[in-house]
Amino acid sequence: MPVVTFDYNDFINILGYKIPKKELVEKLPMIGADFDQVEDDEISMEFFPDRPDLTSVEGIARAARAFFNFKTGLQKYDIKKSDVTINVEPSVKKVRPHVVTALVKNVTMTDELISSLMELQEKLHLGLGRNRKKVAIGVHNYEPVEPPFTYKGVDPNSVQFVPLNKVESMTMAEILEKHEKGADYAFVLEGFDKHPLIVDKNNNVLSYPPIINGTLTEVTPFTTDLFIDVTGTDQKAINYALNIIVTALAERGGQIYSTTVKDGNNTYTTPGLKPTKRKLRTSYLNKILGTKLNEKQIITFLKKMGFNATPKKDFVEVEIPAWRADILHEVDLVEDVAVGFGYDKFDSEFPSDLTFGKELPKTKLYDALRSTMIGLGFNEVTTFTISNENDEFNKIGLEPSERAQIKNPITEEYTCLRVGLIPSLLKILNENRHHSLPQQIFEMGIVVDKTFKNRHHLGFVKIDAKANFTECKSYAESILREMGKTYHIKSVEHPGFIKGRCAEIQIDNKKIGYFGELHPKTITDFDLEHPIIAFELWADQL
């Protein structure tokens, strides 16, 4: 979770009201945070990651202003209109299609603001931005550039500029190789022949998103007007990021100016701080919380959490701030009402009905199977449910059948969910082939069948110079005997087993498992050398 560290006096200046430090430290975590530490006037709070608007001291002060009843309801920010325009070219659409911008003037760049702004930017990159893949933010000194701006895709070898923290001009391709930020975030642009670039009217480079800004627009302690660009792959996410940034600057006294984005046939103005509206049913809230709150009380607690609300028949219409990225469903509003009401005020009571938990019958069966295997001298292992077609089918001589496949796998090792336990157990033997023999292991694990349902199987393997079918049959019979089952063993052929040394287990004329001595090809395909016996039982069908 993101940790926000701020100075108490700086917080009070932004808040605009007096609150004792002790009371602040005691009550602020109730908004949705964990107390980290306090050293003199330096306070560190760990906020829940679903609230990106609380990842700066400015956002915390805004929330505290309502929560401590200094100024409840939705915070309003004045937005003036500017003539700044950014044109989006089609060339950038395949790599990073969305951009929003804003202008904030009359900013006083104090040490506290510079530190807070840098931390907020990086926290948004990491959380909301998914390490800049989804959202990347650029903050620029507006004075040396001239609109209109252009957002376009270019050949990374065709444009060069001086990036931040460097003195020499570099091409975009060189930045990816030689600049620290380029090396860190080159993966975001991997595979694209065009890279995004923001330039001004005179073709001066502002930003190479999501990598680095140009040194031309570097923010200094003397900067008063800031131009902000937010690019990304998700329109909603970049809007939230921009709203969080500009309102944080407004909390410091900055004046927000809107800008115009021209994207093909679409033209829109950003930032958009108009609140969205959502219904909150009174009956639904009281059912979830176990309360009997009326609309007036609900509105009081919503305003304490920074919302505006209007009573309607049987529900409340809630105005949600444009920086609240966490409100996705009606239940999220219920949670905020609970926070506003105070979790410490909920009545606690003992359950009216006294019940005792107990194991499910199947769980008892699985535990009994484990105990039996341990009694037979086997060691239990736990392996991955994800596997690949080569291990699940090819290496044991089977034709690929219906299986749950992983969409866009990042490695050939994990492309599907396993259909049996034996291949997973053989891979464990492969990892331990440098140890002495015999080795005998089992797993009580989950596989996914042809209907894509989870099934519990029991499997074991044993590798030993003297391992044979007769020994495997004795183990199988011991397991079934311990379970008290009447069974029938029938000879079958399986391509992964030696012909004549494989059998299936039947109960009530229904196959529930198989066992036998593995074929030498199967053994060598798993890079093993000694005889192996294997067993697999559909445990949930017993």
Please describe the structure with a list of short key phrases separated by commas or semicolons:
15 helices; 28% helix; globular; 29% strand; seven-stranded mixed beta sheet; ten-stranded mixed beta sheet; alpha+beta; 542 residues
Secondary-structure blueprint:
Elements: E1 3-7, H1 8-15, H2 21-27, E2 33-39, E3 42-47, H3 57-67, E4 79-88, E5 98-105, H4 111-126, E6 135-141, E7 149-154, E8 160-161, E9 170-171, H5 172-178, H6 180-185, E10 195-199, E11 205-208, E12 212-213, E13 226-232, H7 235-251, E14 255-263, E15 266-270, E16 276-281, H8 282-289, H9 295-304, E17 308-312, E18 315-320, H10 330-341, H11 361-375, E19 379-380, E20 386-387, H12 389-392, E21 416-417, H13 422-431, E22 439-448, E23 454-463, H14 469-482, E24 488-491, E25 497-507, E26 510-518, H15 520-525, E27 532-537
Helix pairs in contact: 1-3, 3-7, 4-7, 9-10
Query: End-to-end span in angstroms?
Result: 45 Å
Classify the beta-strand content into a percent band. Answer: 25-35%
In total, how many beta strands?
Answer: 27
Count of discrete alpha- or pi-helical segments spanning 4 or more residues: 15
Query: SS-based structural class?
Result: alpha+beta
Mean pLDDT over the full residue set: 94
- Rg over C-alpha atoms, rounded to the nearest angstrom: 32 Å
The major sheet is characterized as: 10 strands, mixed
Helix content: 25-40%
Overall 3D form: globular
Uncertain regions spanning at least 5 consecutive residues: none
Multimerization status: single chain
